[in-house]
Specification:
This protein is an alpha+beta fold. The protein is built from 12 helices and 20 strands. It comes from Halovivax cerinus.
């Protein structure tokens, strides 16, 4: 019998070994040291595993980690766990254990009343087969520091930068929260997340600086400087800003490192027009990259919990779900002046059939139904979905 349950203290070594082999196999096997191989930053979240109860071996077959996040969807925060550290040793692969682990994780989420599941995939097509779908994108920038020197000339308010440490994380959190309100799927970070994940590194801790103007923190940067003299690079782990002036201040700060580093890298939401601001946009390498994937947990419970536009609409949906059975029956969503109900309607004729991943994209605002050429539905049904679920700007830059 296969059992899904929390990992105990006696499973710390197995968890560390599975994760190490799964994500950094080039490091080779190591003798487990709790302080070195399982630091506090790794212990955030809830560890789960599958166990074969018919063997004497108490080691898990496969493992994962759940972060109990809240994410912003349709203007409100909803419980949306982050699924992470899904790992299997080679001897347990290709036996269906990962699929079982994902299904049981969703069952736990459903029992908890969670609305969405988020994850950063090692490969998008792998999780797509189980119902997760890309729900965010971002611009990844790489450039020489001098490319951002335009910001010094355009900055009207010089302000002041100063370094901060983990005890002052609330200064950064205020800026992050203000920026996060503008983006769907942004994650509400806990105190421990700031302390152990933003301000703490694997080997070295990052630098952290805030930009203040008129006594208010309006932007911040958290970054690493890597490499050796003549070939140093700066990697920005985290940044946020309240307005364009604060963005320019951050760019000017980065530009001032032109005597120290050869290259810097950072990410921004796709609606931030940095290339339009830059004097030499052709020197600013910009790559559109996918963010995390998202998945509805239980549509019947999630959809009525969302805020809808003040419209009257009704749609019956057949959800194609490869992983769980509670989406087997069609569902009927009724919205009257922004108030919604959703019920399972066994035997009803659906207005459209849609896979759970695509529906998840539409619900969170990453795609509109009318954008999806793969959606086989009458025009009036597509128009109804567009009215219920207009596009929203999604952005997630919290790694987990």
């Amino acid at each position: 019998m296969i059992e899904y349950r929390p990992l105990g203290e006696n499973h710390r070594e197995a968890f560390s070994e599975y994760v190490s082999y799964g994500f950094t196999p080039e490091s080779g096997p190591v003798d487990f040291d709790p302080d070195e191989d399982d630091p506090e930053r790794m212990q955030l979240g809830a560890r789960r595993g599958l166990f074969d109860t018919e063997t004497a071996d108490d080691d898990p077959l496969v493992v994962c980690l759940h972060h109990w996040f809240d994410a912003l969807v349709r203007g409100d925060h909803h419980p949306s766990p982050g699924l992470s550290m899904v790992a299997s040793p080679p001897e347990h692969r290709r036996k269906g254990y990962i699929e079982d682990l994902l299904a049981r994780s969703l069952s736990e989420y459903r029992d908890r009343g969670d609305r969405f599941s988020l994850l950063w995939p090692f490969r998008y097509r792998f999780y797509r087969q189980f119902g997760w779908e890309t729900a965010s994108s971002r611009h990844a920038y790489t450039c020489e520091p001098s490319v951002l020197s335009f910001a010094r000339d355009r900055l009207d308010e010089p302000g002041e930068f100063r370094s901060v440490d983990a005890d002052e994380y609330e200064l950064l959190a205020g800026v992050y929260d203000a920026m996060a309100e503008r983006y769907a799927l942004s994650i509400d970070r806990s105190d421990d997340w700031w302390t152990h994940r933003i301000f703490t590194g694997w080997d070295e801790d990052p630098y952290a600086y805030v930009w203040e103007h008129d006594g208010e923190v309006r932007g911040y940067l958290v970054y690493f400087i890597e490499g050796s003299w003549g070939d140093r690079s700066m990697r920005v782990r985290d940044l946020a800003f309240r307005d364009t002036e604060a963005l320019l201040a951050l760019c000017a700060y980065l530009a001032n490192h032109d005597s120290q580093i050869a290259e810097l890298s950072f990410t921004l939401p796709t609606d931030v027009p940095l290339r339009d601001l830059a004097t030499d946009p052709d020197e600013l390498d910009c790559e559109l990259s996918n963010g995390p994937m998202a998945r509805l947990v239980d549509a019947v419970e999630t959809l009525p919990a969302l805020s809808f536009p003040a419209v009257d609409a009704e749609v019956t949906i057949d959800i194609e779900d490869p992983l769980v059975d509670w989406h087997d029956d069609p569902i009927r969503l009724v919205v009257e002046d922004g108030t919604s109900t959703c019920d399972r309607v066994r035997g009803a004729d659906p207005d459209l059939a849609i896979d759970v991943g695509t529906l998840s994209q539409v619900v969170v605002g990453y795609r509109m139904a009318s954008d999806l050429e793969r959606l086989d539905a009458p025009d009036d049904v597509v128009a109804t979905l567009d009215r219920l679920f207009p596009r929203d700007q999604t952005y997630v830059d919290t790694g987990f």
